[in-house]
Amino acid sequence: GQFSRAAAQCFPGVPVHAFEPLSVCQPALRKVAERFPQIQVHPVALGEQAGEVAMNENEYPDSSSLLTMTERHKELWPKTRNEKRITVPMQTLDGLREQFGAGPHFLKMDGQGYELNVLRGAEETRKATSLVFTEVLFDQFYEGQADFPAMLEFMRARNFRFVEFAAERRMPPLGELAYADAVFVKNRPRH
Q1: pTM of the prediction?
Q2: Residue range 156-165, pLDDT digits in tens
Q3: Is the Cβ–Cβ distance between 183 and 166 less than 8 Å?
Q4: Residue 137 burial by Cβ neighbours in a 10 Å radius (0-12, 13-18, 19+)
Q5: Residue 67 and residue 191: Cα distance in Å, rounded?
Q6: Contacts of 138 (CB under 8 A, 6+ apart)
Q7: Would you tell me how many other CB atoms lie within 10 Å of the CB of residue 155?
Q8: Which residue spans within the chain are E strands per DSSP?
Q9: Which residue of 46, 71, 152, 186 is most buried, as measured by CB atoms within 10 A?
């Protein structure tokens, strides 16, 4: 809900669609949406096809994912060791597109390694999108995750260029990059 609140504050009156499949996280997000009526909460996961899917719900909700967590993740963040499998509904961004109207022009994702799958379900939606702000991983935290080179290649093939990292997390002792928020901007035709 933090990013949804910031987006609503920065862009008053602009619709903000927030997707949250975890029932434990939905009350806080709905509370934010009560303060900012342009926020619409969708209690679903996003991916490349619609249906029901198994999700790994973690005691530390920020690490919950549709992918299985690796031992490396659990070593780095021991508080993420306890999780259970739940079933959640999944939609594609393209399948929900009619609800969005003209946008989205800005797409922000943090899917715990599932971001590329979300983009695969957003072929039409992405055509209307000017900017993608997404978490990217540099270490193997989830089985089957896309890493930054794969995301970079995918976005380049769809006419987006990497601009910068808006935030990054480095791990001691060498300060190696673990994950970051990457900003991709759609290339505009030159006239």
Answers
A1: 0.90
A2: 999 999 999 9
A3: yes
A4: buried
A5: 43
A6: 147, 148, 176, 177, 178, 179, 180
A7: 21
A8: 16-19, 39-42, 45-46, 51-58, 83-91, 106-109, 131-137, 160-171, 176-186
A9: 46
Scan for tokens 């193997």, then name that residue.
140
Contact 180, 135 (CB under 8 A): yes
Measured distance CA(127)–CA(54) in Å, rounded: 29
Q: What would the two tokens of residue 80 be?
A: 């993420």
End-to-end alpha-carbon separation of the chain, Å? 40
7 backbone dihedrals φ, ψ, rounded to 5°: -65, -40
Record the tokens describing residue 95, joined without a space: 């399948």
pLDDT tens per residue, range 55-92:
999 888 888 999 999 999 998 888 888 889 999 999 99
